[in-house]
Design a protein that fits this description.
mainly beta, 6-stranded antiparallel sheet, 7 helices, elongated, ShKT_dom
Length: 458
């Protein structure tokens, strides 16, 4: 009756009554099947974009000890009478909330961080670090999963006047689960604790015993931003969690990281069960009391690099006294890149000396040679203008004054977000490691360096 097209039954009716309309009906939208589908096929039910409803009162009719015993012994799944008398503990009813669809943070809340499913990397390290992600991209500052987002706001925690912090999991722009924390007198890394819980989509869970709660990686499970009732590797029960590069359980098989899980009932659920839900966005939002209750924070998105208290625009170059030459890269990282301002001369012949003139930062090499000027490096002579490599360690040049100048051949310190970037081993014929990052990270070489010219191999 419900799937005549799929069952190939559209043209085989032997009755004289008019045949049924030949289209398939959705079990999700059929009132007759919806309660059964919600209980037995919650993953399938997630595809139906409607609020979950139930006629089961969300209370336990029996005593808490009897209902807890029923849960422990697995009676909830075996007996309908147990599910009726212990509906709340068995998780067969849901909290009566109506989720709202939005493209931006709710009124009064400021989006501080947004992770999206399958983006890769370590979500806690991305939150804890000082780097930004798409801070000036207006298409990222919403609650849909197209792009991750992290402005510079959380790096100025004490200026945000936060009284509440909310972590949420969204699916298609709909908030599926949340926990609100008290943010007063907190810092960026210590507000995710049980004693700060104010509210949640599961009611007040602050007083419920928990084996682990924290944004950092749980050493027992590898999970992050997790609130768990029992923490036993792949048999963990909880309310909310994020997978990480360190987690590896059967329920993660076939999923890209990070993934965002939440309990679809009003109690903690086993992450391997069918009572968990999955979202596509993990959001951290802050509620500010600045400017007489204004919903915006006083800290604007970054437009450059702050170096020793001075803001420099992207692309700007400056000197730090006689010590360094600095550049503000155009990668929206807000991190200045600096190199020594003056060259370092090594192995000067006895006829040569570095002389610094009054008012100059860098000294000049003066030599007293007769005949053709050459440079001697490790017993070998080079003429002015010659350039050579000392293995994969140094790149050198013979200067006009008979001295040579060498610098490190490869960049040793990269200002890249280590949680999402790595250094790839050199290609054949090359010496230097090269950063490998997602496409939204812009890689900029320090001043005086560029892509390596490699020696062809046979």
């Amino acid at each position: 009756r419900n799937c005549p097209a799929f069952c190939n039954m559209c043209h085989h009716s032997t009755v004289t009554t008019p045949p049924p309309q030949c289209n398939d009906k959705s079990l999700c939208t059929s009132l007759a099947f919806k309660p059964w589908a919600q209980q037995n096929c919650p993953n399938f039910d997630q595809l139906c974009q409607g609020p979950t409803t139930t006629s089961v009162p969300c209370v336990d009719k029996d005593s808490p000890s009897l209902c807890q015993s029923a849960v422990t012994n697995g009676f909830c799944s075996q007996f309908a009478s147990v599910r009726d008398r212990c509906a709340k503990s068995c998780g067969v009813c849901t909290v009566a909330t109506t989720p709202s669809t939005s493209t931006a943070p709710p009124s009064g809340w400021q989006l501080l961080f947004k992770g999206v499913e399958n983006m890769g990397g370590d979500l806690f390290q991305l939150w804890a670090g000082g780097q930004t992600i798409n801070p000036l991209d207006p298409t990222a500052a919403n609650l849909f999963p197209q792009k991750p987002y992290k402005p510079d706001l959380s790096n100025h925690w004490n200026s945000l006047c936060l009284d509440k912090i909310k972590v949420s999991i969204y699916k298609h722009g709909v908030e599926k689960a949340y926990i609100v924390f008290d943010a007063r007198n907190s810092d960026k890394l210590n507000w995710f604790s049980s004693d700060r819980i104010i509210d949640s989509s599961w009611g007040n869970i602050a007083s419920i015993p928990k084996q682990f709660i924290g944004m950092q990686t749980d050493p027992s499970t590898g999970l992050q931003f997790s609130v768990t009732q029992t923490s036993q590797q792949c048999s963990t029960t909880g309310w909310i969690m994020v997978t990480s590069p360190q987690s590896n359980c059967f329920y993660e098989k076939g999923l890209q990281k990070p993934s965002f899980f939440y309990s679809m009932t009003n109690t903690a659920v086993n992450w391997g069960s069918a009572q968990k839900g999955m979202g596509d966005v993990f959001a951290i939002q802050g509620h500010s009391t600045c400017s007489n209750g204004s919903t915006t924070t006083p800290v604007p998105p970054p437009t450059g690099c702050t170096y020793k208290g001075t803001l420099h625009q992207e692309g700007e170059m400056w000197t730090d006294g006689c010590e360094k030459n600095c550049t503000c890269p155009k990668d929206q990282s807000g991190i200045a890149q600096c190199v020594p301002r003056c060259p370092v001369y090594q192995g000067l012949p006895s006829q040569c000396h570095v002389v610094k003139q009054p008012g100059q930062c860098c000294g000049q090499v003066y030599c007293n040679f007769t005949g053709m000027i050459t440079c001697n490096y490790k017993g070998k002579d080079y003429v002015v203008g010659d350039k050579w490599d000392d293995g994969c360690d140094l790149s050198c040049e013979c200067l006009a004054n008979g001295a040579y100048s060498c610098k490190q051949k490869c960049v040793n310190h990269w200002n890249i977000p280590k949680s999402i970037c790595s250094l790839a081993e050199p290609e054949p014929g090359c010496c230097c490691q090269v950063p490998k990052c997602p496409s939204y990270v812009v890689i900029q070489y320090p001043q005086g360096y560029g892509p390596e010219v490699c020696t062809p191999t046979r």
